[in-house]
Design brief:
The structure is a homodimer of 354-residue chains. With 354 residues, chain A is an alpha/beta fold. Chain A is built from twelve helices and twelve strands. The first copy, chain A, has three domains: 65 residues, lambda repressor-like DNA-binding domains (434 Repressor (Amino-terminal Domain), Orthogonal Bundle), CATH 1.10.260.40; 125 residues, Response regulator (Rossmann fold, 3-Layer(aba) Sandwich); 128 residues, Response regulator (Rossmann fold). In chain A, the strands form two sheets. In chain A, strands 2-1-3-4-5-11 form a six-stranded parallel β-sheet, with helices on both faces. A six-stranded mixed β-sheet of chain A has the order 7-6-8-9-10-12, with helices on both faces. Chain A is elongated. Chain A binds a DNA duplex (30 and 30 nucleotides) through helix 2 and helix 4.
DNA sequence: TCGTGGTCTTGGATCGATCAAGACATTCCG
DNA sequence: CGGAATGTCTTGATCGATCCAAGACCACGA
């Protein structure tokens, strides 16, 4: 069975030894260890089935040959790839997908610990679902992680109908009857945290600058500000503004609010808007953090760079990744287990602006 | 051969039809189209071997059944996965890996067009090469894309010794004899572009703020500034500074340079340093772009948000991805073809700061 | 009529790991 | 002491697509 004699040459696993033309197979290891293929397979997948001494012998042969099970063969037999698919959108220049990039890093790290890898794919220009469809039908991935669950949520319901395993980062806003596992960050809790932080510092007129009303996430974040204000019996009339997510909009909105409602602090739905507020303050010779306080959302890369540093609500993306992988393991377990949705609470990164 | 009758139910490909318990196989398509397995295989891999009408019939059956070749089986037989592995580091909060994230997006998009997918993996905490090693030995990926080729470049030489196919984003600084394909962006050309832009505007005393001398990339960028200045017969003595890549360092260095050498413009090795310069200007009541010009590097997310917007050198990451994929296709072709390294020229995104 | 392509079928073997079932020896217990 | 119950290891079949070689069938032109 030894197709290549040189393959048997002793070699330490992590040294940069030249990769043989054809890597060693299970059979090669079996021959070298003087056992059957199945025993080698068991040594890898069910070590406790072997007697300690044979296990050691097989393990030795594996190390000497630098053997690692062929993924394709294993995938074919077990009907699973240990790959998790995740679609990423085009690189938009806005700060929006910076959060997603941070999440990808966390997800890759966490899946590694669980023995999975992340397969990235891009949306086809025409049909947004073809990417999912191809990967599913060719059984290239075991499951998906989807990230943009707002806006009608076509992927979630599509995948659900296909009975494809997936976990969503983002709650099912529109479908309360959704049965898929999801993980999300409580945006309202985040803005409430920010607002309470400001109220604790003595502010009473805390303004809100958020997104258009059709944004579910935006309305959620706004509700946290509302709740915190009303929780202390404070009025919010005239203190809220809903605009586009741009620096210019944040600047205009804050200027307008300062003139009309004299707030002493701002809570914003994004760091982008908060940067707009900082600009207005600079325009008027006001010092952020001393004269007027500002809090942003997402703790983006800009936050520590503003002058003064921008206090911002930070999503616990590492924890999100951990929960997503937990849900994935449940989905792919035997039998599959679908737990309830998981809601995580963000934290507040306090800097000079508040 | 029909293991499941319902599988033959008509179904349009992109509709969210429920995925059958076991996806259709080549044999199922063959039966439905009334041809042999071999013919179906040819329809997919060698369409020109078939008569047009049978090709159409097979294609129809494929569409009706929603068939897609099983990746694992194909990978096993053809010994290739159509996956490209790329390691990503931990999510550092600095702006350094923002460029990498932008590159990942471009790479995913470009590989899609070439029929490949990107497999992300993380570095093991202990041994940085184990990730590569495992994927190689288990033949999980066809090739790698490596991105951090500075600092002794252990991955490149390790992979070369293993005869593993890979393409580097980043030139082989230390190994002129390296034989692997690479793509890089000419940092010196970028800073020269920036410097010339400033000189064209009438500046004669253009200062440089860069990184420590042990950074190859930093010295490369610095050389472009030097070349542009000397190209017009201008002196550079006292106009350069080498510091850490932080806002505070950029601020201190620019303050010092302004005091000692009275430059009217700054070219920086990074946007982070440039933000530091902007801060010094604000400290002294100077207006960036009017009193003193500033140019950064990498066109990061901060650049458009500063006040005024930061002029910055932009790496053509989309083009880099295209060239990387071209090189990959050469490497994986029959026979493998290794072209020369490719050097791309960055562009300058001009904003208010210059 | 015989060859010559073009097109498709047939029956296999193959990739490498895992599953299902069985072989064999040892131990334990009534 | 016989039979069951383990523990340990082996054998043949299997996952689904591709590759290979040989041949069947048809149509066309020489």
């Amino acid at each position: 069975m030894s197709r290549d004699v040189t393959r048997a040459a002793a070699r330490l696993p992590s040294l940069p030894a030249r990769l043989p033309a054809t890597p060693p197979t299970l059979a090669d290891v079996a021959e070298r260890a003087g056992v059957s293929r199945q025993t080698v397979s068991n040594a890898i997948n069910n070590p406790d089935l072997l007697r300690p001494d044979t296990l050691a012998r097989v393990q030795g042969a594996i190390d000497e040959l630098g053997y690692s099970p062929n993924r394709a063969a294993r995938n074919l037999r077990t009907r699973s790839s240990h790959l998790v698919g995740m679609r990423i959108g085009p690189a938009q220049e806005g700060t929006a997908n910076a959060t997603m990039d941070r999440f990808v890093h966390s997800l890759v790290e966490t899946t590694r610990e669980a023995g999975y890898h992340v397969l990235l794919f891009a949306a086809e220009p025409d049909d947004p679902m073809t990417g999912y469809d191809d990967l599913l039908r060719s059984t290239a991935v075991d499951a998906f992680v989807i990230t943009d669950t707002y806006l009608g949520n076509p992927q979630a319901s599509w995948l659900e109908q296909r009975r494809a395993p997936f976990v969503a980062f983002g709650r099912p806003w529109d479908q309360p009857e959704a049965r898929h596992p999801w993980v999300d960050v409580d945006g309202a809790a985040g803005t409430a945290l920010a607002t309470d932080h400001l109220l604790d510092k003595g502010h009473t007129r805390v303004a809100w600058i958020g997104w258009r009303k059709d944004s579910r996430i935006g309305e959620d974040r706004r509700s946290g500000w509302l709740r915190a204000m009303h929780g202390r019996g404070l009025s919010t009339t005239g203190l809220a503004s809903r605009v586009e997510d741009t620096v210019a909009s944040g600047r205009d909105a804050s200027a307008h609010l300062l003139d009309e409602a004299q707030p002493s602090a701002f809570v914003c739905a994004s760091d982008t808007l908060a940067v707009g507020v900082l600009r207005t303050l600079a325009d008027r010779g006001l010092v952020a953090g001393r004269d007027v306080a500002v809090v942003g959302f997402d703790d983006s890369q800009v936050a520590p760079l503003t002058q003064p540093g921008l206090t911002s609500v930070r999503q616990p993306l590492e924890d999100v990744a951990v929960e997503v992988v937990k849900a994935l393991e449940g989905l792919l377990g035997h039998p599959p287990a679908v737990g309830p949705g998981v809601m995580l609470t963000p934290t507040l990164t306090v800097r000079g602006s508040s």
